[in-house]
Structures are given as C-alpha cells and as structure tokens.
Design goal:
Layout lengths: L1 H22 L57 E6 L13 E7 L4 E6 L5 E7 L1 E7 L7 E7 L3 E4 L4 E5 L6 E7 L7 E2 H6 L7 H8 L3 H9 L2
Antiparallel strand pairs: 1-2, 2-9, 3-8, 3-10, 4-7, 4-9, 5-6, 5-8
The chain binds 2-acetamido-2-deoxy-beta-D-glucopyranose.
The site of 2-acetamido-2-deoxy-beta-D-glucopyranose (NAG) has 2 residues, from loops.
C-alpha cells in the first residue's frame, strides 16, 4: 500500500514538474488586455497605472493616428540629435497597448547621449547613414556591448539599460525605434546626475565620481 502511494506521489510530482516547465514561471510581456481599446482620456483626473479610458462613444480614428515622421527633427543643439516621440502623449489610442515609436535624427557627429528607458526595451533600425551604438549591462556588471550599424541594420537595447547612439560619419543619419511601452520614459544619465533640480550636492557627486568638487561644479554649471 505504502509503495503504491509513493509511486502515485512520484507520478504526481513528475506531472506537476512537466506542467510547470510548460506553463510556469516565465512571463515575457504585460498581462493580456481585457478590452479592445482604452483610449487615453487626457482630461481625466483619475490616477491609474496608465491613463483612464475615454468613453467608447467619443473614440475616433484620430485617436490612433499621428502624422509627421517623414520630417527631420531639429538637430541644432549641443548633442546634434533630435528625438521625435510617438507615444501615448501623441497617440492616445496607445494607452494600455505596451508599444510606441520614435524617429531619431543625427547631425554629423551627432550623439544621442547615454540614457535609459525605465519602462521599455527598444529596437532600432537605421534608415539613413551609420551609427556606433552600445549599451551597458548590470549583470555581468558594467559590460559594454557596441556595434557599428548601417542602413537597414537593426539593433536592440534591452529594457532599463544605459545605451547611446553616435553618428561618427560625415553624413546625417536617421533611425526609427520601436519601444515596448506606451510611455517608455527617458532618463539621460548626465542630465539626471548633474542637472537635477534641485542639484545633488557637489560633495556627493565628488565622492561618487572621485573628482574634486570644483570639477563637479564646472559640470553642473553646464546643465
Ligand atoms: C532649430 O533649433 C535652433 C536652436 O534652438 C533654432 O535656432 C532654429 O531656428 C531651429 N530651426 C528650425 C528650422 O526650427
């Protein structure tokens, strides 16, 4: 009797293990939607994780539409790059859908400086020119992955990791990126660290960067 019970338990455990390997533990995307659409109601004061839904009666095709990505962004700035974002702020129909888009323009030697998207993985394709791109991992700690990519090439920046793109060539470059969030978020490392409002005190940054406070003050003055 004991032997039968033991073999029954073993079989049950094996079945459970099989089921778990099939169904268990791995979640690679947001949970499924419970409705076709939830167009952002920008006027709503309801605070939810995302934006409250508009009344379905008020939804129109325009809520799912954006025009203008054929136009270059203005790269006349210190970095020589411009991001034209198309996320839930521009397209309310993206609310709850976990996806968005951007166009990035790079002047000669233009840089999209080291930054992270706290909410999104990014997949980039080069439409024009060439880019030197890279990201840094947390595990293995601070390992840099880089590549030169050309027209038609695709490169991925995993969610949350610090990454950059640099147009090292002597022609303009253009890229389109897709992001796995309606609201990817953007933290530019230098701006966050040296340009926060109010400032992080210079003794903290002097310690963090192992430089004199005067060096920190110089950098902070630029932001
Ligand atoms: C681009 O930005 C620069 C700097 O802000 C500005 O002077 C210039 O007028 C802008 N160009 C266009 C075409 O908007």
């Amino acid at each position: 009797m004991a032997a039968i019970r033991a073999s029954f338990l073993l079989a049950a455990a094996a079945l459970l293990a099989l089921w778990c390997s099939d169904h268990g533990g791995v979640v690679a995307s947001d949970p499924s939607h419970l409705q076709d659409l939830c167009v952002a109601d920008k006027a709503s004061t309801v605070r939810v994780n995302g934006v409250a839904c508009k009344d379905g009666e008020d939804v129109a095709a325009e809520d799912f539409f954006f025009s203008g990505l054929h136009m270059a962004g203005n790269t006349t700035n210190k970095q020589g790059s411009a991001v034209t974002a198309v996320n839930v702020a521009q397209v309310p129909g993206l609310n709850t859908l976990g996806i968005s888009l951007a166009r990035i323009d790079y002047a000669l030697h233009g840089l999209n400086p080291p930054h992270t998207h706290p909410h999104a993985t990014e997949i980039l394709t080069v439409l024009e020119g060439s880019l030197y791109v890279g990201f840094v991992t947390s595990n293995p700690e601070n390992k840099l992955f880089t590549k030169v990519i050309n027209k038609g090439d695709v490169f991925v920046f995993p969610k949350g990791l610090v990454h950059f793109q640099f147009n090292y060539r002597t022609t303009d470059a253009v890229a389109i990126v897709a992001l796995s969030s309606q609201n990817p978020g953007m933290i530019t490392v230098a701006n966050a660290v040296f340009g926060s409002k109010p400032s992080i005190t210079d003794d903290i940054l002097a310690n963090a960067f192992q430089v004199e406070k005067t060096v920190v003050d110089q950098i902070q003055a630029k932001f």
